[in-house]
Structure formats: C-alpha cells, structure tokens
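JOB MANIFEST
job_type = single_chain_structure
chain_count = 1
residues = 681
[input]
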Amino acid sequence: MTEERYKLAIGRIQEIGAEQTVDVKFRDYFCKMADFVIMIDELKSVLSEGAYADAALIELQEWNQRLYFDILPEQYEKSYANPSNAVRKLGEEYGALLSFLYTELRGMIVYVFEKKTEYLDILMELFIEIYNQFEEGLPKIKDIKDTIYWYASDYCDVFAADRIKELILPGESFAADIIRNSNLEDIRYLYQFGEYVSENERKGAQYMNSLPDEVIQKMADVYTEGYRRGFVNTGKDLSKKSVVNIRYVLGFERVVRRAIENFEKMGLSPVIYRASVSVLTKRKNLRIGYCGGNPNPQYDYDHRNDQALFLDKRFLERKVEVIQNTYEKYKEEAAQFAGPACMEVFGEKPFSPEQKKEAVKFTDRQEELSRQFENRQSQITNEYIRGDERSFTIIAYPVPEIGEKYKEIFDEVIRINTLDAKLYEKVQQTLIDALDQGEYVHILGANGNRTDLRVQLHGLSDPEKETIFENCVADVNIPVGEVFTSPVLEGTNGTLHVGKVYLNELQYRDLEIEFVNGMISDYRCGNFERELENKEYIRDNILHKHPTLPLGEFAIGTNTTAYMMAKKYKIEDKLPILIAEKMGPHFAVGDTCYSWSEDVKVYNPNGKEIIAKENSVSALRKEDVSKAYFHCHTDITIPYEELLSIVVVTKTGENILLLENGRFVLPGTEALNEPLKKMHR
C-alpha cells in the first residue's frame, strides 16, 4: 500500500512541470517544488539500487550539494524557503504558507535515506493537495490553512509517536548502524546519513582518522566515564538502565564508535536519533539529536515559529494525547532510558540572525499554548523517564572552521577536558568553605561591564554536615572547573551585563538583564538598531517566550587554563557555554540545575550534603508542578577581564574577597592564577 501510494503521488508530481493550470505568479514555485520531489525520487532509486553506496566521493559531494543548494547562504535570498523572498514573489499570506510548505517538504531528504516511504507519501500528498487547490483558481487562505492544519493533526500520531520511539528504542537507530558497520577510514560514509556535509565534517573526520588509537580511546573514555560518574555522584543506580542517547555532530564517528563500546560494557545500548526536520517535532531552531553541518542558520531561524500556522488548543490536546499514549505503550522501555550523552562542537562563525518581519510569528494566545505544551510534555516525560533516576554528560570539541590552528586548539581542548580533577576539587572546596559563610554574594563588573548584582544564599542549619555549593569536578559537565548553587530568589537584585556572549548558537552584544527578587524584570541588548527587536530577540531565545524567568543558578568558574587557551587563540566568542561557563562567574536563567530531582540527596566529595537545590518557584512542584518549571536553563558568563570583584558578605557584615580585578585572591586558590600569569608572559 505504501509503495502504491508512492507511485501514484510521484507520477502526479512528474506531470506538474508540463502543466499550465495554476496562475502564472505561482507556476515557478510549484515547478521548483516538483523538481525537488523528482530529485528525491531519483535519489530513492539510486539508493535502492546500491549505486549511491558505491559512488565515488566526488559524486556523493555533488549529491549533497544538489540536496542543500537552495538554502545555502549564497542562494537563500532567491529561494522560496526564504520567507522574505516567498512573500515578495507570492504575496504576504500565500508566501508565508508556501514557504512553510517548501520547508516541510525538505524533510524528504532525510526520510529517503532512512527509507521512510510512508513519510515521503504523506509529504507528497500534502504538496499535491495544495497544488490542486491552486489549479481551481486562487484558493482561499483559509482552505490552505485548513489543509496544513489537518496534515499536522492527522499525522501527529505518526511523527510524534515515531519521535518517542526513536528516543527510547535502540532498534530504531539508523545512525548507530552506519557508525558500527562503516569503514570510517573512507570518509564517503559521511554521506550515508543524508545530512549536510560541510568542510567541518569532512576535515574533522579526516583529522579523527589521523589521530593515534590511544587518543581516540582517551576522548571516548573521558566522555563515557563522565556519564558513569554522573550516576555515582548523585547516588542513582545505573544498573537499572539499559539505553543511552548519544548526541553528536558528524565527523566524530571514530570516537562515537569507541564510546558505544564503552557504554555497552556498562550495559547500555545506544539510541542515536536525528535532530528533527519536521515542524511537528522540532523545538524552534534548536538541533536536538545527531546532525551534520548547518547549511544556513538563518534558514532555521526564519522557520523557528512555523507551528504558529496551525497551533491551537485542539492540536495541542491531540499532540499531548499521542505523547501520553506512546509513552504508555512503551513504558517499560522508557523506564530503561538513562539520559543523553552529548558531544557538542564549536568554532563556527558566530551567528547573529536577521529579524524578518515576513517570518511566521506566534500570537500571544499561541505563546501561552506553547508554554502549556512544554509543561505538559515535560510532566509526561518525567512520569515515564524519571528525572531522579536519569543523568547526562556534555563535552565539546572544535571544528576546523575555528581557524588555521585547529589542530593545536584541538589538542588544547583534549588537555582541558582531562585536567586533574583532584587539584580542582581541593581548590574549589576552599572557595565553597568561604561561600558557605555568606548571606549573599556581591558581583561587580569592570572595564565597561555594568554588572552590579547581589545574589542571596541559602542558610545552613548544620554547617558541619551541609553545604550550599556543589563542587563540580568534571562528571556530567566536562571540563572541570566550577562551583554552583541555586540562589534564594528573594533578595537577589541588580544588573547582569556582558559585552558579548554566544548562547544556544546565537550571538548577543551588550546583553543586560535586570533582576528584582531573583526574577527578570527587564532586559536589553545591542544586536539591532530598534530596541523592540532587541527585546523580542531576548524574549524569544533566552526567556523562551516566558514573561519572566528566575535566576536558577549562580556559579563561579575556575578553569583558568581554558580561559588562557581562549585568549591565546583569540576564540573567546566561539567557545560553547559548556567551556565558557568555567571561565568566570556565570548566571543561569530558568530552571535550577536540579530540576525534577530536587529531592535526591546529593553530596560533595567531602561528604557534605548540598541543600541549596531549589528556590521558591521550583518549590511550587509540591502544590502545582505546572508552575514550578520553565524547561530552559541558559548560562551567561562574565569573563574574568570584565570582573572587578566577587565578595562574600556574611551575616555579621564581614567581607570575604574571592576575586579582584579578574584574579583569585582568596588564600588557597592562588594556583588558579598560574595559567593567567603564563598568558601575560
């Protein structure tokens, strides 16, 4: 039946190029879309016949270029995937809808590689249905919207249900088969995933192949051991789990293969699901899962709110029902899920998006519905994959785009990721001992940084057995180098400012956030000329459309070695938050680090229990869990050179100086300044 549907659909689409049944204004659009689908059909034949697997590297590169050509930056301005171009050529309302359709059909690229013929059928039939509406004259906008709505509603049970199965069922892992069974010395394997392959992935894979076996093993070991220690350090039983989710960017398959072997020795099978390409399962412009290079971040950003074309309460209820039913069907498998192990990359040119008025936007009501959905989805997920039983780990490596000293930087990052945790544990405990005496911490910026922030701390009932800050020694967050806490919101007031920062793949300039009793009261940045655009940018991508967020974490980064490396190679603006947060004090807006597991007892290496795991917002979980969490956590770091001082203020008014003019001055922490001294030699 699936193949019969496919033949009927592709046969109809092959006729479109010769037809003149739609208004001339829209003919070019539908012909280009038909050509795209015909190209996918051609690829399907090449794949099924085995010719693709046997193709030479140059042929595979040509295929990859053909598939992604129209959204590459140099072509994007005249692509119908660009909402500005679509609106300019097709009109405001038709353009927005047809640009969405163009974008959704591009998912066919990965579906054809995964042999998901049903998905191809669904998308081709959607295209044909909308094309038929234009054959009858200019259709009503409502009719097109209805078609899109019923596509989303009818096939939610396919796309959303399959997404959950990909998350928890190892047998669904298309990528794991490629990683296990390919000759990784032959980089043609990169083109078997269906992802965009840029020079970063190609050169990265070549560099991985040049590294000695012991280096690859070392990279895999620090990654998987950090994951294991995350369970040990939080007292969670890893033996109850059997599935680990590996997320990474193409090019690191040699490391991932070794990681799979390590995880299997722990009793964990890998699920490696692809970052979503459908509006039915994507979360804004975030790429969650394995992925290739990003052909055009602006394209992703332009379509981050496409769900606004059909999101209403009825659809939300439909999707929640599908998620609930799927988890219930696979509840035993879901209980075996241990959590994600993420290998991130950095070094790409920092991206500051253009705000396009033609891009689809949520209404206020839809924003509220979207927040409700995130909340309910998180509750369902936590019901079947308990937060107090799962863990994670994150590590990051550079890509060749970082510059001509890529190999040097890569070696430095390996060194940073394997620093002596015992040394940091001792020094960080010295900081914690001082912080535990505090009523609040006062942070002041310097050298143009306008930070002036008071962070209120939890009180200790038994200082001999309790502590406020966690001593982070490179388990789930690699590399080593921070102490962190969940602040008391009431009494946390002031301004957080940073000149330039890179958050969730987006750049912010002159970012400033005001806090009143721990909640964001105002915000601004300098990315755009219009203040309204700056506020919208922050609200969309830091507040995630919430009217406010709490200060969920305060931390002091201690990894001056990473800071020295960033300065030496002038890559401060390219570092991921994972490393950047270890290079100065940082402040996370959103949920605390302990969300969904606040009641799990956690201890520092010295045996003291960490008691500062919640705030007055997350405590609402005991009454109404929907009010306790925001489903986001964004770290913002002040670099050392923008720091005047960090002072612990005790209840008696004593000031304990931790850092001054970007240097650690607390007795017992002087070793952290040694890398900084080398930087100025």
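[summary]
The two ends are 72 Å apart (CA to CA).
The chain has a mean pLDDT of 94.
exit_status = 0
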